[in-house]
Amino acid sequence: MNCVPQPDPDVVTTIMPDGDMIPLHLRTRQYFSLNKTGTLMWELMMKSTTIAGMGRALFDRFEVTPEAAEETVSELIEDLKSHRLIRISGREEPIR
Q1: pLDDT exceeds cutoff 80 at 1
Q2: Minimal CA–CA distance to 39: which of 53, 15, 21?
Q3: Is 42 exposed, middle or buried (0-12, 13-18, 19+ CB in 10 A)?
Q4: What are residue 64's phi and psi, to 5 degrees?
Q5: Residue pair 13/24 in contact by the 8 Å Cβ criterion
Q6: Phi then psi for 53, rounded to 5 degrees?
């Protein structure tokens, strides 16, 4: 599927001293801590990369199998959706 996850417009981010990224939804006050892998995925979302493209980027950059890359991306997308930090293109309503 060529869905494009994108940060919710009400989300701001900051980078911590250790390199982790913290996205914070200003209205809901939901936040999440992203490690190096998650930060890469967030940066790809900012560039409107598809979910499939995110998996390929993870596979290319880290020593993981294509299946592990796909699973990692899927899990991260679900976690970010549950915190209402991202939206998926093609949906009429924000992710709840």
Answers
A1: no
A2: 21
A3: buried
A4: -135, 160
A5: yes
A6: -65, -35
Structure token digits, residue 5: 């996850």
Which amino acid would we find at residue 22?
I
Amino acid letter, residue 60: D
Quick: pLDDT tens for 59-72: 999 989 999 999 99
What is the amino acid identity at position 31?
A: Y
> Three-state SS for 87?
strand
Structural domains of the chain sorted by starting position, each given as residue range(s) with its CATH number in brackets: 10-88 (1.10.10.1150)
Burial of 12 (0-12, 13-18, 19+ CB in 10 A): exposed
